[in-house]
Amino acid sequence: MNRIKIMLLGIAIILLGIAISTMNFFGWCGGVLGIVIVLIGFFMNDRDR
User: Fold this and answer.
1) Are 38 and 16 in contact (CB under 8 A)?
2) What is the CB-side half-sphere exposure of residue 9 using CA atoms within 13 A?
3) What confidence tens digit (pLDDT) does each residue in 2-48 have?
4) Is this model's pTM higher than 0.70 or not?
5) What's 15-38 look like in SS3?
6) Cα–Cα distance between 40 and 20 in angstroms, integer?
7) Which of 5, 27, 34, 48 has the fewest CB atoms in 10 Å of its CB?
8) Rounded Cα–Cα distance for residues 3 and 15 (Å)
């Protein structure tokens, strides 16, 4: 499960970079919100253990 989380974190960082490069306020907000959600999911414990 850890590999999937790292892969999702990488995808979120790529999307954040795209959102920042557009210089759009809503793109920035969406990108930051997405990266925060992925980071929260990355550091949460799995319940199926």
Assistant:
1) no
2) 11
3) 677 777 778 878 887 887 788 888 878 877 887 788 778 777 776 65
4) no
5) HHHHHHHCCCHHHHHHHHHHHHHH
6) 21
7) 48
8) 19
